[in-house]
Amino acid sequence: MNIQHAVSLKPYNTFGIDVSAELFCEVSGTDELAAVLKQNQGAAKSLLIIGGGSNLLLTKDFKGLVIKNSIKGIQVIHEEEDYVLVRAGAGESWHQFVLYCIEHKLAGVENLSLIPGNVGAGPMQNIGAYGVELKDVFQELEAIRISDLQQKTFRKEECNFGYRESVFKKELKGQYIITSVTFKLTKKPVFNTRYGAIETELQRMGVKELSIKAISDAVIHIRQSKLPDPAVLGNSGSFFKNPEISIQQYEAVKAAHPGLVAYPAGEGQMKIAAGWLIEQCGWKGKRVGNAGSHKDQALVLVNYGGATGQEIYALALEIQRSVQEKFGITIEPEVNVI
Ligand code: EPU
What we know:
The chain is built from 9 helices and 20 strands. By secondary structure, the protein is α+β, with helices and mostly antiparallel strands.
């Protein structure tokens, strides 16, 4: 175990924010993680667990211990005629895991290609894109409880998955560290091209016969064409969640703003495209100091270089305020602000 002092977190968050951790340790196995946690129990330092650092806005130096979860490994743990259970270490890159599945002809995660971050962060916020969510392929996960180092298996029902939500962001927030996730992938793909942009992209690519590889390629193209690459321009994907409002409120807003983009979301609710709301408030492509709203997808806030977390957060609050003022709708961050 190698605990370092005063380490810059810039390489560990996709916004590229340069704050420091008082203490920092990278772990590559469950035993090592348990040992670090045990040692920290005595010191009673605040903890921050980082995976791919792609859903995180760091606004100040972290006084405490930052643990970078780099637990690796992908293995098939069970196989049936039509499905396979694959376990992946929490520290595996999500997209590398998706590529593994495609290479092994295992279907279910192709629509989730190129989502930044690591496997362990997937269940935390039930990552989703292009009509598929992690919960659709989730079998179970292993986690370690910080207070007493107990290991626990969580089955799907125990995770309370919702839209960008899980028990790990709510009731059990800050209590467990996910060490591995097991997925149920199918050998007989059920293609999901419902999401309009995928069909269009498949046509553009001239795909004659659908395959999980073709869908993955289409998703990769779509994402690359409108979402900035964090390696080039610091960002954390969608900064806000798409808000859900009642049908009554939706109808009132729609009457005043006929262009409103929305989708049905459960009983009596509508999900509103936050990107549209933000664009209508004039933020799309706008730069304030070193921070801004991206030119191709207003929901994504970016660091043009050298932005502080405070600067990006201040911009987020201003955007939130203007959406509230214009539409009477509250948009909440999807990203964890620390
Ligand atoms: N829109 C605008 N202006 C914008 C952006 C969007 O008018 O600047 C409108 C358009 O009408 C567009 C609609 O909003 O058709 C939806 O936009 P998009 O397809 O980009 O999807 P999104 O709802 O903005 C969500 C996820 C993304 C995911 C995409 C595709 C959330 C918070 N975001 O974005 O996830 O990739 O759907 O499925 O749910 C992420 O979570 O980091 C993320 C990138």
